[in-house]
Design brief:
Length: 378
Protein backbone atom coordinates (compact mmCIF):
# COMPACT_ATOMS: atom_id res chain seq x y z
CA UNK A 1 0.00 0.00 0.00
CA UNK A 2 1.32 3.39 -0.97
CA UNK A 3 0.78 6.18 1.50
CA UNK A 4 0.86 9.75 0.26
CA UNK A 5 1.84 12.37 2.77
CA UNK A 6 0.19 15.65 1.83
CA UNK A 7 1.77 18.71 3.33
CA UNK A 8 -0.88 20.94 4.84
CA UNK A 9 -1.16 24.36 3.23
CA UNK A 10 -0.06 27.26 5.37
CA UNK A 11 -2.90 29.54 6.35
CA UNK A 12 -3.13 33.00 4.89
CA UNK A 13 -3.08 35.98 7.27
CA UNK A 14 -6.82 36.55 6.75
CA UNK A 15 -7.59 32.89 7.47
CA UNK A 16 -5.55 33.08 10.67
CA UNK A 17 -7.41 36.19 11.79
CA UNK A 18 -10.79 34.64 10.93
CA UNK A 19 -9.98 31.55 13.01
CA UNK A 20 -9.07 33.72 15.98
CA UNK A 21 -12.27 35.76 15.57
CA UNK A 22 -14.35 32.56 15.52
CA UNK A 23 -12.78 31.49 18.81
CA UNK A 24 -13.43 34.92 20.34
CA UNK A 25 -17.10 34.77 19.34
CA UNK A 26 -17.57 31.59 21.37
CA UNK A 27 -16.07 33.02 24.55
CA UNK A 28 -17.98 35.00 27.11
CA UNK A 29 -17.72 38.77 26.73
CA UNK A 30 -18.11 39.37 30.48
CA UNK A 31 -15.35 41.53 31.94
CA UNK A 32 -14.30 41.07 35.54
CA UNK A 33 -12.53 44.22 36.65
CA UNK A 34 -11.20 42.41 39.72
CA UNK A 35 -8.74 40.57 37.49
CA UNK A 36 -6.94 43.83 36.70
CA UNK A 37 -3.90 44.62 38.84
CA UNK A 38 -3.44 47.98 40.55
CA UNK A 39 -0.68 48.85 38.10
CA UNK A 40 -2.98 48.04 35.17
CA UNK A 41 -5.79 50.09 36.70
CA UNK A 42 -3.47 53.09 36.91
CA UNK A 43 -2.47 52.59 33.28
CA UNK A 44 -6.10 52.40 32.16
CA UNK A 45 -7.01 55.54 34.09
CA UNK A 46 -4.07 57.41 32.59
CA UNK A 47 -5.14 56.38 29.10
CA UNK A 48 -8.71 57.53 29.77
CA UNK A 49 -7.46 60.83 31.16
CA UNK A 50 -5.11 61.48 28.22
CA UNK A 51 -7.88 60.61 25.76
CA UNK A 52 -10.31 62.98 27.46
CA UNK A 53 -7.76 65.81 27.43
CA UNK A 54 -7.12 65.43 23.68
CA UNK A 55 -10.82 64.97 22.85
CA UNK A 56 -11.90 68.56 23.54
CA UNK A 57 -12.66 69.52 19.96
CA UNK A 58 -11.80 68.78 16.34
CA UNK A 59 -8.51 70.69 16.57
CA UNK A 60 -7.14 68.75 19.55
CA UNK A 61 -8.21 65.42 18.05
CA UNK A 62 -6.77 66.12 14.64
CA UNK A 63 -3.41 67.20 16.06
CA UNK A 64 -3.33 64.22 18.43
CA UNK A 65 -3.64 61.81 15.49
CA UNK A 66 -0.67 63.45 13.79
CA UNK A 67 1.38 63.26 16.99
CA UNK A 68 0.74 59.51 17.10
CA UNK A 69 1.74 59.09 13.46
CA UNK A 70 5.00 60.96 13.96
CA UNK A 71 5.80 58.80 17.00
CA UNK A 72 4.62 55.54 15.41
CA UNK A 73 4.71 55.86 11.58
CA UNK A 74 3.81 52.17 11.33
CA UNK A 75 0.27 53.15 12.39
CA UNK A 76 -0.78 54.40 8.97
CA UNK A 77 -4.36 54.97 10.09
CA UNK A 78 -3.19 57.73 12.42
CA UNK A 79 -2.19 59.86 9.43
CA UNK A 80 -5.29 58.85 7.48
CA UNK A 81 -7.38 59.76 10.53
CA UNK A 82 -5.54 63.07 10.82
CA UNK A 83 -6.25 64.06 7.23
CA UNK A 84 -9.89 62.95 7.30
CA UNK A 85 -10.38 64.74 10.63
CA UNK A 86 -9.11 67.94 9.02
CA UNK A 87 -11.99 67.60 6.58
CA UNK A 88 -14.37 67.15 9.50
CA UNK A 89 -13.17 70.46 10.90
CA UNK A 90 -13.57 72.23 7.55
CA UNK A 91 -17.12 70.89 7.30
CA UNK A 92 -17.86 72.20 10.79
CA UNK A 93 -16.63 75.71 10.03
CA UNK A 94 -18.41 75.74 6.66
CA UNK A 95 -21.61 75.84 8.72
CA UNK A 96 -20.59 79.30 9.96
CA UNK A 97 -18.90 80.35 6.71
CA UNK A 98 -19.82 82.38 3.66
CA UNK A 99 -22.26 80.10 1.87
CA UNK A 100 -24.03 77.82 4.34
CA UNK A 101 -25.17 80.68 6.56
CA UNK A 102 -27.26 81.69 3.53
CA UNK A 103 -28.44 78.19 2.61
CA UNK A 104 -29.29 76.61 5.96
CA UNK A 105 -31.30 77.84 8.93
CA UNK A 106 -29.57 78.37 12.25
CA UNK A 107 -31.26 75.25 13.62
CA UNK A 108 -30.18 73.14 10.63
CA UNK A 109 -26.59 74.31 11.01
CA UNK A 110 -26.59 73.61 14.75
CA UNK A 111 -28.06 70.12 14.33
CA UNK A 112 -25.62 69.24 11.58
CA UNK A 113 -22.68 70.50 13.64
CA UNK A 114 -23.84 68.25 16.51
CA UNK A 115 -23.94 65.32 14.07
CA UNK A 116 -20.40 65.99 12.80
CA UNK A 117 -19.01 66.70 16.27
CA UNK A 118 -20.51 63.55 17.81
CA UNK A 119 -19.03 61.34 15.10
CA UNK A 120 -15.63 63.02 15.39
CA UNK A 121 -15.68 62.68 19.17
CA UNK A 122 -16.79 59.03 19.12
CA UNK A 123 -14.10 57.90 16.70
CA UNK A 124 -11.37 59.57 18.74
CA UNK A 125 -12.45 58.16 22.11
CA UNK A 126 -12.39 54.69 20.52
CA UNK A 127 -9.23 54.95 18.40
CA UNK A 128 -6.88 57.02 20.54
CA UNK A 129 -6.84 54.66 23.57
CA UNK A 130 -5.80 51.85 21.21
CA UNK A 131 -2.80 53.87 20.08
CA UNK A 132 -1.81 54.75 23.64
CA UNK A 133 -2.00 51.11 24.70
CA UNK A 134 0.09 50.09 21.70
CA UNK A 135 2.66 52.75 22.60
CA UNK A 136 2.78 51.44 26.16
CA UNK A 137 3.20 47.89 24.85
CA UNK A 138 6.20 49.04 22.82
CA UNK A 139 7.62 50.72 25.90
CA UNK A 140 7.22 47.61 28.07
CA UNK A 141 8.16 45.25 25.24
CA UNK A 142 5.10 43.08 25.77
CA UNK A 143 1.56 43.11 24.33
CA UNK A 144 -1.06 44.70 26.61
CA UNK A 145 -4.01 44.29 24.27
CA UNK A 146 -5.86 42.07 26.73
CA UNK A 147 -6.69 45.39 28.41
CA UNK A 148 -8.62 46.70 25.39
CA UNK A 149 -12.00 45.33 26.59
CA UNK A 150 -11.64 47.45 29.75
CA UNK A 151 -11.56 50.47 27.44
CA UNK A 152 -14.71 49.26 25.64
CA UNK A 153 -12.73 48.47 22.49
CA UNK A 154 -14.16 45.83 20.17
CA UNK A 155 -13.08 42.19 20.34
CA UNK A 156 -12.34 42.57 16.65
CA UNK A 157 -9.58 45.10 17.33
CA UNK A 158 -8.15 43.09 20.23
CA UNK A 159 -7.67 40.24 17.76
CA UNK A 160 -6.11 42.51 15.15
CA UNK A 161 -3.67 44.20 17.54
CA UNK A 162 -2.46 40.82 18.84
CA UNK A 163 -1.93 39.71 15.25
CA UNK A 164 -0.11 42.96 14.42
CA UNK A 165 2.20 42.43 17.38
CA UNK A 166 3.23 39.06 15.90
CA UNK A 167 3.09 40.10 12.23
CA UNK A 168 3.54 43.87 11.72
CA UNK A 169 1.35 44.09 8.62
CA UNK A 170 0.53 47.80 8.30
CA UNK A 171 -2.08 47.24 5.59
CA UNK A 172 -4.12 44.78 7.66
CA UNK A 173 -3.97 47.04 10.73
CA UNK A 174 -5.13 50.05 8.70
CA UNK A 175 -7.98 48.17 7.05
CA UNK A 176 -9.07 46.80 10.43
CA UNK A 177 -9.16 50.29 11.94
CA UNK A 178 -11.24 51.52 8.98
CA UNK A 179 -13.67 48.62 9.45
CA UNK A 180 -13.82 49.21 13.19
CA UNK A 181 -14.33 52.97 12.88
CA UNK A 182 -17.24 52.72 10.46
CA UNK A 183 -18.98 49.86 12.28
CA UNK A 184 -18.54 51.70 15.57
CA UNK A 185 -20.32 54.74 14.12
CA UNK A 186 -23.06 52.80 12.39
CA UNK A 187 -25.47 52.28 15.31
CA UNK A 188 -24.26 55.17 17.44
CA UNK A 189 -24.61 57.86 14.77
CA UNK A 190 -25.79 56.71 11.34
CA UNK A 191 -28.64 54.54 12.66
CA UNK A 192 -29.44 56.92 15.53
CA UNK A 193 -33.17 57.80 15.11
CA UNK A 194 -32.57 61.43 16.05
CA UNK A 195 -29.85 61.96 13.43
CA UNK A 196 -31.84 59.98 10.88
CA UNK A 197 -34.78 62.34 11.33
CA UNK A 198 -33.03 65.67 11.82
CA UNK A 199 -29.98 65.30 9.57
CA UNK A 200 -29.73 62.40 7.16
CA UNK A 201 -33.33 62.48 5.92
CA UNK A 202 -34.08 66.18 6.28
CA UNK A 203 -30.89 67.39 4.56
CA UNK A 204 -30.30 64.39 2.30
CA UNK A 205 -30.89 66.29 -0.95
CA UNK A 206 -28.89 69.29 0.17
CA UNK A 207 -25.98 67.16 1.34
CA UNK A 208 -25.70 65.11 -1.84
CA UNK A 209 -26.44 67.66 -4.54
CA UNK A 210 -25.54 71.09 -3.22
CA UNK A 211 -23.11 71.03 -0.30
CA UNK A 212 -19.46 70.01 -0.33
CA UNK A 213 -19.51 67.59 2.62
CA UNK A 214 -19.05 64.53 0.42
CA UNK A 215 -15.60 65.62 -0.80
CA UNK A 216 -12.61 64.43 1.23
CA UNK A 217 -9.65 66.66 0.34
CA UNK A 218 -5.97 65.93 0.87
CA UNK A 219 -3.75 68.99 0.25
CA UNK A 220 -0.08 68.43 -0.46
CA UNK A 221 3.12 70.44 -0.52
CA UNK A 222 2.60 71.42 -4.18
CA UNK A 223 -0.61 73.27 -3.19
CA UNK A 224 -2.76 70.86 -5.19
CA UNK A 225 -5.60 68.70 -3.88
CA UNK A 226 -6.14 64.95 -4.02
CA UNK A 227 -8.94 62.94 -2.48
CA UNK A 228 -12.16 61.04 -3.07
CA UNK A 229 -15.91 61.66 -3.13
CA UNK A 230 -18.51 59.71 -1.14
CA UNK A 231 -21.90 59.31 -2.82
CA UNK A 232 -23.76 57.04 -0.39
CA UNK A 233 -23.04 58.35 3.09
CA UNK A 234 -25.60 56.10 4.79
CA UNK A 235 -24.08 52.90 3.38
CA UNK A 236 -21.65 51.16 5.75
CA UNK A 237 -20.21 49.19 2.84
CA UNK A 238 -19.56 52.33 0.78
CA UNK A 239 -17.95 54.13 3.71
CA UNK A 240 -15.54 51.23 4.28
CA UNK A 241 -14.65 51.16 0.59
CA UNK A 242 -14.12 54.92 0.69
CA UNK A 243 -11.72 54.46 3.61
CA UNK A 244 -9.74 51.94 1.57
CA UNK A 245 -9.58 54.30 -1.41
CA UNK A 246 -8.51 57.23 0.77
CA UNK A 247 -5.75 55.10 2.25
CA UNK A 248 -4.55 54.26 -1.26
CA UNK A 249 -4.50 57.95 -2.25
CA UNK A 250 -2.25 58.77 0.71
CA UNK A 251 0.02 55.73 0.85
CA UNK A 252 0.23 54.11 -2.60
CA UNK A 253 3.19 56.28 -3.65
CA UNK A 254 6.00 57.15 -1.23
CA UNK A 255 6.82 60.45 -2.93
CA UNK A 256 3.18 61.58 -2.68
CA UNK A 257 2.93 60.45 0.93
CA UNK A 258 5.99 62.56 1.73
CA UNK A 259 4.31 65.61 0.17
CA UNK A 260 1.12 65.09 2.19
CA UNK A 261 3.08 64.66 5.43
CA UNK A 262 5.25 67.70 4.76
CA UNK A 263 2.15 69.80 4.11
CA UNK A 264 0.62 68.60 7.38
CA UNK A 265 3.79 69.50 9.28
CA UNK A 266 3.87 73.03 7.89
CA UNK A 267 0.14 73.77 8.13
CA UNK A 268 -1.22 73.25 11.64
CA UNK A 269 -4.94 72.54 11.57
CA UNK A 270 -7.14 75.55 12.36
CA UNK A 271 -10.44 74.41 10.86
CA UNK A 272 -10.41 77.19 8.27
CA UNK A 273 -10.15 76.30 4.58
CA UNK A 274 -7.56 79.06 4.46
CA UNK A 275 -5.20 76.30 5.68
CA UNK A 276 -4.94 74.88 2.15
CA UNK A 277 -6.18 77.66 -0.18
CA UNK A 278 -5.33 81.07 1.30
CA UNK A 279 -5.68 82.61 -2.18
CA UNK A 280 -9.44 81.94 -2.05
CA UNK A 281 -10.40 81.65 1.62
CA UNK A 282 -9.83 83.94 4.59
CA UNK A 283 -10.57 83.39 8.26
CA UNK A 284 -11.53 87.08 8.52
CA UNK A 285 -14.85 88.15 7.03
CA UNK A 286 -14.06 90.77 4.40
CA UNK A 287 -17.73 91.40 3.64
CA UNK A 288 -19.46 94.73 4.13
CA UNK A 289 -23.00 94.61 5.58
CA UNK A 290 -25.68 95.81 3.16
CA UNK A 291 -23.58 95.32 0.02
CA UNK A 292 -25.35 92.90 -2.43
CA UNK A 293 -23.60 89.57 -2.93
CA UNK A 294 -21.78 89.17 -6.24
CA UNK A 295 -20.26 86.06 -7.78
CA UNK A 296 -16.57 85.83 -6.98
CA UNK A 297 -15.39 82.44 -8.20
CA UNK A 298 -14.33 81.42 -11.67
CA UNK A 299 -12.48 78.12 -12.17
CA UNK A 300 -11.24 78.11 -8.58
CA UNK A 301 -9.86 81.61 -8.86
CA UNK A 302 -11.25 84.85 -7.52
CA UNK A 303 -12.56 87.26 -10.09
CA UNK A 304 -10.66 90.52 -10.40
CA UNK A 305 -11.23 92.72 -7.36
CA UNK A 306 -13.35 90.10 -5.56
CA UNK A 307 -12.96 89.63 -1.83
CA UNK A 308 -12.04 86.24 -0.38
CA UNK A 309 -14.58 83.68 0.82
CA UNK A 310 -15.10 83.67 4.57
CA UNK A 311 -13.99 80.44 6.26
CA UNK A 312 -13.60 80.91 10.02
CA UNK A 313 -11.27 79.12 12.42
CA UNK A 314 -12.98 76.42 14.45
CA UNK A 315 -12.38 78.20 17.77
CA UNK A 316 -14.26 81.30 16.58
CA UNK A 317 -17.05 79.27 14.93
CA UNK A 318 -18.06 76.77 17.63
CA UNK A 319 -17.67 76.28 21.38
CA UNK A 320 -16.43 73.03 22.87
CA UNK A 321 -19.17 70.45 23.42
CA UNK A 322 -19.67 68.35 26.55
CA UNK A 323 -20.56 64.86 25.33
CA UNK A 324 -22.56 62.11 26.97
CA UNK A 325 -20.62 58.88 27.44
CA UNK A 326 -20.37 56.67 24.38
CA UNK A 327 -23.04 54.02 24.06
CA UNK A 328 -21.80 50.65 25.33
CA UNK A 329 -21.74 47.49 23.28
CA UNK A 330 -19.45 45.67 20.85
CA UNK A 331 -20.41 46.04 17.19
CA UNK A 332 -18.54 42.84 16.26
CA UNK A 333 -20.90 39.91 15.66
CA UNK A 334 -19.80 38.23 12.40
CA UNK A 335 -16.31 36.98 11.64
CA UNK A 336 -17.00 37.40 7.89
CA UNK A 337 -16.38 41.13 8.34
CA UNK A 338 -12.69 40.21 8.04
CA UNK A 339 -13.21 39.83 4.27
CA UNK A 340 -12.74 43.60 4.06
CA UNK A 341 -9.13 43.05 5.14
CA UNK A 342 -8.32 41.50 1.77
CA UNK A 343 -6.10 43.52 -0.52
CA UNK A 344 -7.44 43.64 -4.04
CA UNK A 345 -5.04 43.99 -6.95
CA UNK A 346 -6.85 46.87 -8.57
CA UNK A 347 -5.43 49.63 -10.73
CA UNK A 348 -4.00 52.51 -8.77
CA UNK A 349 -6.61 54.82 -7.28
CA UNK A 350 -6.93 58.10 -9.12
CA UNK A 351 -6.99 60.77 -6.44
CA UNK A 352 -7.80 63.66 -8.78
CA UNK A 353 -10.54 65.74 -7.19
CA UNK A 354 -9.62 69.37 -7.73
CA UNK A 355 -11.85 69.90 -10.80
CA UNK A 356 -14.89 68.35 -9.12
CA UNK A 357 -14.29 70.34 -5.96
CA UNK A 358 -14.01 73.58 -7.94
CA UNK A 359 -17.33 72.84 -9.64
CA UNK A 360 -18.91 72.11 -6.26
CA UNK A 361 -17.69 75.46 -4.92
CA UNK A 362 -19.19 77.24 -7.92
CA UNK A 363 -22.54 75.44 -7.46
CA UNK A 364 -22.45 76.30 -3.79
CA UNK A 365 -21.88 79.97 -4.57
CA UNK A 366 -24.68 80.03 -7.14
CA UNK A 367 -27.04 78.35 -4.66
CA UNK A 368 -26.11 80.89 -1.99
CA UNK A 369 -26.71 83.75 -4.40
CA UNK A 370 -30.09 82.31 -5.47
CA UNK A 371 -31.13 81.82 -1.86
CA UNK A 372 -30.28 85.46 -1.15
CA UNK A 373 -32.41 86.62 -4.09
CA UNK A 374 -35.32 84.44 -2.96
CA UNK A 375 -35.03 85.86 0.55
CA UNK A 376 -35.24 89.41 -0.77
CA UNK A 377 -38.57 88.67 -2.48
CA UNK A 378 -40.09 86.62 0.37
Amino acid sequence: MIIFFIRSREKTPIETIKDELKVKMKKSAVIDLKTVTKEEQVLLENIKKSTSERNLNNLTRTNAYFDIYQKHPEIHWAFLGHMVSRNGGWNMTDLKGEFLTRLLTKKERSVFFTFLERGNWLIFQDAYPQFLLYSESIKRKKPLFYLLPYLNISTFMETIWNYFWRVPDTYILTMALIINEQNYLEKRVIQNPSYQKDVLNTLEFKLQDVLSFNHILFPNRKKSLAGQTLHQFQSLHERILLGKRLYAVLFQKKELLSQFVQWAKVHRHTGSRKDYWPHIFNNVNEGIPGIPYKLRLNACKLRWGARKIYSPDLTSAWKNVHHQDAEKGDWFSEWQIADYLLEHNETQINGEIEYDYCKTLERLELAALAKKVITIFD
